[in-house]
Amino acid sequence: MKNYRHIEVRPIAGALGAEISGIDMAQDLDTEVVSEVRHALLEHLVIFLRDQKATPLQQLAFAKKFGEPVEYPQLKGLPESPFITPVVKLEHERNNFGGIWHSDTTYLPVPPMGSMLLAREVPPYGGDTLFANQYLAYETLSEGLKQTLDGLIGVSASSKADVTKTREDALKQAGSGATPKNLEAEHPLVRTHPETGRKALYTSVAHTAHIKGWTEKESLPLLQFLWDHQVKPEFTCRFGWKVGSLAFWDNRCAMHNPINDYHGFRRVMHRITLAGDKPR
Asked: Among 104-118, 155-169, 239-253, which is the least confidently predicted range?
């Protein structure tokens, strides 16, 4: 555990996740503070800030301290900033965007390093997000299964039925300008984190269609075991949102799942995605 000089870091669960205090996103941060926040992200996989009052452009400036913002491939961003994607569920809608365990957009050849989500409007209850530590998911596998996974490639697709269902209401909101794209990419089922050097499972029920060189039927028993294993409760944390809460997660080693338990209420979040590297 690192000793932090400029920020306070309080873990919220045994597996991953920490709340950070001493940070105001609306202010320009010096390099030492940015370095400590980044270290906290690498140490805890997902970090949370509370009571942030940043404007969209201040949120964007904060995000740029940690990486290069990129546009989300399925939905348009805000008019004043295409790099900020509004994630909205309205009172009458039943589907919540991305409401299934996943790592973000693994169907891209170069998936994102991380994502930042800032709560603008939240329901009076519900709407929490779960996160899961994929280092632990890999490290707790048997040596035999680790050897089996070595070299296996997963084919990720944006068109899997369960995840396309979670986009339906968001695409309706966006209107005719938002056409869902069918995207595919190949990535190892176990990736090595480029900064920590640790291995993590890199598959999800949302996006992995099959194993390269295997049929879907052949792939499913192994993939289903991994999908069940990688979200065991002891690998997870749960975050309850308030207006002004920010979550910043490392897409290379953490998965997330927004819980869809707030029908009849409105929820508005602003998301920024940061460019990553090709998984290896």
From this structure: 155-169
> Tokens in use for 208?
């992995």
Token look-up 């320009």 returns 28
102 assigned to active site:
yes
Cβ atoms of residues 7 and 16 within 8 Å: no
Strand partners of residue 85: 271
- Is the distance from CB of 51 to CB of 118 less than 8 angstroms? no
What is the pLDDT confidence band of residue 176, given thresholds at 50, 70 and 90?
very low
Query: Phi/psi of residue 69, each to 5°?
Result: -65, 145
Quick one: what percent of the chain has pLDDT higher than 70?
Answer: 92
Q: Is 159 helix (H, G, I), strand (E, B) or coil?
A: coil
Catalytic residue among 102, 167, 207, 267: 102
Backbone angles phi, psi at 180, to 5 degrees: -65, 135
Considering only residues 2 and 238, tell me which one the structure prediction assigns the higher pLDDT: 238
Token couple for 73: 């491939």
DSSP H or E run through 134: helix 134-139
Q: Domains in the chain, please, with CATH? A: 8-274 (3.60.130.10)
How far, CA to CA in Å, does 230 sit from each of 42, 92, 138, 259? Answer: 19, 33, 8, 17
> Among this protein's residues, is 271 annotated catalytic?
yes
The one-letter amino acid code at 269 reads M
Catalytic position from the list 104, 169, 252, 270: 104
The angle at the Cα of 171, spanning 169 to 173, to the nearest 5 degrees, equals: 70
